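Action item from last week, closing it out:
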Amino acid sequence: MFASCICAASVRILTRLCALVLVVSVGLGSELRVRVRLSDGLVTDEVLEADSERDSISLEFKQGDGTLITFVADFKQDVKIFRALILGELERGQNQYQALCFISRLNRNEIIPSESMARLRQKNPQAIRLAEERRGLEQLTMSAAVNLSRAWQLSSHIHNMCSEAREAIYTREADVKHWLDKGVDGSMFETLPHTTEAPSFQACHSTKDLWQPCLCTYSLRLEWYPCQLKYCRSRDTTGKGSNYKCGIKSCSKGYHFTYYVPQKQLCLWDEET
């Protein structure tokens, strides 16, 4: 028992040390590559990029099953975009891969600003990163489809991000109402059948017929991202104190999306085990 306590303490210390060597500094370039341990224990390379001019941040990594996850935070439009490129099951009649896009409002306290992200550097690129804070799972019911050809009104990033997911771009009812209040063209959105309107729809994992409509779920986790700036305090020769940026806090957060699909064939990962 004593040995396990030492081990656990060592892991906590190592996690904090790995996070502390990420420092905010001025430099050229805006790409940061970090090695991240996923929840299944595998290690993946995560690429984070900042575009100060467009005021956006992107994060991309590959899961253990080969799925490519991309996340974009568009600070100009207060929009966040998730894209999943999922390897298809060719033997079950699927394409080589299936694309999904989920769009929702971005809260300002979710991730550090793009200008700060552009200045992040790491002293030890080989270190395996573990998030300092594991945030709770967010449940999102995606009750509307988004028309790709009109989605530029929400964010200029959507067309490039979601072109492969043309028929599978989803958002929430609350977000639609917010954007409509801001003057966005309502023809961009199509309300999808919902559980309250169509109680006969089952969850896809309990639907046997591959060609029946059902409610699909998809989960992903951003295992490591810079969620908050850290500030240190210094004093000058006169003893006057001041704060300065001295690093970042890293977070991990999971997302669980529920949405309507016209046939279970589009949701084969959501099956009973």
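Closing note: The mean pLDDT is 84.
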